[in-house]
Design brief:
By secondary structure, the chain is an alpha/beta fold. It is built from 7 helices and 7 strands; from the N terminus they run E-E-H-H-E-H-E-H-E-H-H-E-H-E. The strands form 2 sheets. The protein has a 5-stranded parallel beta sheet, sandwiched between helices. The chain has a two-stranded antiparallel sheet with strand order 2-3. The longest helix has 15 residues. The relative contact order is 0.18.
C-alpha cells in the first residue's frame, strides 16, 4: 500500500500564510510572498501528522503530494518534524495549474517512473487531502481519497 499525504491543511497548519481572493480561492502570489524561511518556521502540526509518522514507522511507502513550491526551508521543517517521506511530489516553480490538475500530473509522472499507470497507482494508494476538488478528481483515477477533517485518529 502507498500512503499519500497532502501537506497544507492536511498535516501542516500553514493558515497564517494563506490569503484568499474575493471568490474564496487561494491568492497564490500572496502565498508565494509568505514562503520565507521565517514564516515557514511558524507552521504548525495538524493531528494527521501523527498518523503520517506512524505510517512511516510501520515501513509503509509514504509520499507527500503537495501544491507547494518546495524550498529548503520546507524540507527542513519536514525533517525537523519527523516526516521522512519516500518522495515529495511538489509544484514546479512558476506552475499555476489548479491543484487537482497539478496533482494528477505529478502522480502520473510518479506512476510512469515506477513503471505503472496512474490507475494502477491509484488502486494501491490511500490519499489524505483537504481539497474536495482534489479528492473528487483523483477518486476518478481509482485513488482511495480521505478527507482529514472527517477521519478519526486514535
Amino acid at each position: 500500500m502507498l500512503c499519500i499525504f497532502d501537506l497544507d491543511g492536511t498535516v501542516i497548519d500553514s493558515s497564517h500564510r494563506q490569503l484568499t481572493q474575493p471568490d474564496g480561492t487561494l491568492n497564490l502570489q500572496a502565498w508565494r510572498d509568505r514562503c520565507t524561511p521565517a514564516m515557514i518556521a511558524q507552521d504548525g502540526e495538524l493531528p494527521l501528522i501523527h498518523w503520517a509518522r506512524e505510517c512511516i514507522a510501520r515501513g509503509y511507502e509514504v509520499i507527500a503530494c503537495t501544491a507547494r513550491e518546495m524550498s529548503a526551508a520546507d524540507y527542513d521543517w519536514l525533517r525537523e518534524h519527523g516526516l521522512e517521506f519516500s518522495a515529495i511530489l511538489s509544484r514546479p516553480v512558476g506552475c499555476t495549474l489548479p491543484d487537482a490538475r497539478l496533482k494528477v500530473m505529478l502522480l502520473a509522472d510518479f506512476a510512469r517512473m515506477s513503471g505503472e499507470s496512474l490507475m494502477s497507482l491509484g488502486a494501491r494508494s490511500v490519499f489524505w487531502d483537504d481539497s474536495a476538488s482534489v479528492r473528487d478528481t483523483l477518486a476518478d483515477f481509482g485513488f482511495s481519497m480521505l478527507n482529514p477533517a472527517q477521519v478519526q485518529y486514535a
